[in-house]
Amino acid sequence: MASLTPVAVLADEEPAPVDQHELSQMMQSEGAAKAFLWAFDAGDELTEFSFDAARGVGANIGEGRRFTRVPRADLADPSEWASHFPKREGGANATSFIACHNAPIANGAGDVAVNVLVDPAHTGDPTIYLERNTLPLFALGIPQRLAEEISADLYRQRDAAQQVACISGRTSVQLESKGVDYGTLILTRVSKDPCSVETDSSGLSGIDRDLVIKPFGWKGNHATIRAFTRNAAHNELGLQAVELVGDQDGDFDGVVNELTVGDVTALTIYMAALERPVTKIELADLGLIDLSGSERTDILAGEALFAQTGCTSCHTPAMSFREAVFKEPSETPGFFDSSFPDGTDPNNHGLNNVNAITFNLAGDQPNNRIKLLDGSIQHLGAAQQNAEGKPVARWYTDFKRHDMGSDLADPDNPLGLGASMFLTRSLAGVGATGPWLHDGRATTLQEAIMSHAGEASDSTTAYKHLSESEQTKIVAFLKNLTIYKSLEE
Ligand code: HEC
After folding, report:
1. How many angstroms is it from 27 CA to the middle of ligand 1?
2. What does the pLDDT read at residue 160?
């Protein structure tokens, strides 16, 4: 049996900034596997490190402060909170990434104590600040890669319909990928030679008009780990990536180039390649935990009830990959920067397809290699395989936004995505990532389920009509979805 040693072994050495050109050179001279592991380790160090002022952590809030838990649109002098660029949403809140991602272990979710308050519209009105609970960082390559494949399918379906509209004048197409319905497009030809087509996107379901699936953020508003990371680094840590602000000091703390392009690549690769959440049943089958026969029966009964009550209409249990290789930068349009937010060309920083850092989501994860009693090595970090031998992810989301009703709604709609609209939360690892829901209001899984309304009303009603013992089984199924960390690597 693998021994579990205490988890937080923190790096104490200052990580050197990662040079993207050097990373690319390593790809060429030492090969993809070496470059991947180097990026992964560098990302690991960056997530654990407590940055200091000399490295540019924090921001010039005003009133002599470097950090604030409360958005300060009132501090609006040149160089103060409200004058930073890009426009601040909140913070700076912390000096390290894992300060906020640590429950129940490093890279996990966060308690309500580390919730962040955001005021993207700079209203200065605390009654309409949005509150956000921390999400876990495990295996983020899985949702990004699935999103890439779904978008690629939707682009193909749209493009084919455009050809049809050019010939027939008008057509509609039902968009579908990996068993999920993404709504309809109606295409009407407006001129013949050359053909030009007008697209009515009002029938789309839960996704944006650009058909780019955005798996990150509670509202589903970021397509890539990279984009989410540089945004969070700026807002939560006051670390401004050079690809975000160029060589300017956008948060007026006297430091420029606070995160290099290579740093953001390393952080991206690290989170993409972290081990995936597991199940208790899986762990018991490997002899790593004890699970009684009745616990196992309850979990399986709960899984069936989870489907019967309609939970799976949003929390899609499994999706398979066509190609489980993650690449940074990605090759799928919508999932790489043709130019960085600061206007520069990624290629000039050494970030390009030729030297993309790649790894296989179905086998290359460095973490969670576990020595079993019989001496064999079990790799718990990788995506599983289905009956046809295809890599498959049990991520429990349809990657769509849904209206969750007025009780769960945000007090305001500064992003324009709808106050009550939320991305179907992945349930991978959900048993270990409480408190739950976007603001951490649910202290139990039962509360989280009971709070579902809006589009989830039918399912919630079905859940409420179950007997208490049936409800307990659904909760047992959710608790079965957990996180396991082996430090025996
Ligand atoms: C209409 C789509 C939909 C249906 C149906 C649905 N959910 Fe959800 N679920 C969501 C969304 C969206 C969220 C995130 C809501 C939020 O944070 O405000 C969520 C969040 C959750 C969470 C909290 C996850 C976390 O990490 O905080 C749990 C647990 C959950 N759902 C379980 C269920 C169960 C069990 C059912 C069936 C009884 C169900 N859901 C049915 C869309 C749905």
Report:
1. 41
2. 98
